[in-house]
Amino acid sequence: MMENFSQNSDKTVASLIHISTFSKFIIPLGNFILPLILWTAKKDDHFVNEHGKQALNFQISIFLYFVLLSFLTIAGVIYLGLEISFKNPFIFSEEYINIFPALISLPLLFFLGIVGVLFLALFILEIVAVITAAIKASEGKLYNYPLTINFITPTPVGIHQSKNDQYNNTQNETL
What we know:
Blueprint: H1 11-19, H2 30-41, H3 46-87, E1 91-92, E2 97-98, H4 106-138, H5 163-174
Antiparallel strand pairs: 1-2
Helix pairs in contact: 1-2, 1-3, 1-4, 2-3, 3-4
């Protein structure tokens, strides 16, 4: 969902929120800390609020995908490694050394290749999605990240009112 918002929205802060997620390559957990600081500083602006929620939701989602894929990788390597060692146990003797034939290790290598491609795909998705979100924010548009789990729920577009509208509504109710 990409919509234009008013021109008075703080596009620079919204773009910085997205770009600040790259700080994880310099600061541990920087992809959570820096966007959170920028988001809470300008949370009153609806445009910045929505971009902050989207950026944090995406970073949490990507982190969970990496953790899940890491656990599946460890479990798969253990399973396939044990299967290899039970099929052809290590033999050490003076005349013959057979660690295990190369053909037995092909399932493990194939599995590691697939997992490597998935890790690379997640990494590329993160880079491309963050850059796209920053560009959309600088254009004054909302951007919904792909594969995002909404932990911090975005505000529906029609519900938000500016502080002036809220003040005017309370003034009209008292009349």
